[in-house]
Amino acid sequence: MASESSFDVVSKVDRQEVDNALNQAAKEIAQRYDFKGTGASVAWSGESIAIAANSEDRVMAVLDVLQTKLIRRGVSLKVLDTGEPRASGKEYRLDSALKEGLSQDDAKRIGKIVREGGPKGVKTQVTGDELRVSAKSRDDLQAVIALLKDADLDVALQFVNYR
């Protein structure tokens, strides 16, 4: 009798890749002519990314540079939780936090998608900030992965511990 196969659905951020993208963006901002004299900067601020410039448009341009670098390094933009630019004295600031881990609501929503659209006999179980999906057939698990990749979710998903 075949044993059950399973995998875990997680939402993790590769901090090293984010750090590399942040450093690349900071270098590009320091070198680009259109950012000269605007006080444009991007740096870590605790667990979030702080962006600053002298106008709202420049802040959004710096964010665009950072997003471009993240995409090139293979980091999903869904990990960024970006607020609105706000005035702080003579400069504008924008904080962008990193979203990591599946919340209980997200895990339940993903489990519901799997139950409704996935193959029969697939089971889901929420454990902490991850979701375990198990089935007797590996083909069913492949179908669930394809289903979740096509689903429009606001979290970046990775599929780990496939066995």
TrEMBL record:
Which HAMAP family does UniProt cross-reference here?
UPF0234
UniProt family annotation = Belongs to the YajQ family.
The entry's cellular-component GO terms read: cytosol
Q: Name the NCBIfam families on file.
A: PRK05412.1 (NF003819)
Q: Which UniProt keywords apply?
A: Nucleotide-binding
Q: Name one Pfam family in it.
A: YajQ
Checking InterPro entries in the record gives: UPF0234-like_C, UPF0234_N, YajQ-like_sf, YajQ/Smlt4090-like
Provide the protein name: Nucleotide-binding protein AVDCRST_MAG35-2772
CDD domains from the entry? YajQ_like
- Per its record, what are the GO molecular function terms? nucleotide binding
Q: Main role?
A: Nucleotide-binding protein.
- Write out the transmembrane intervals: none
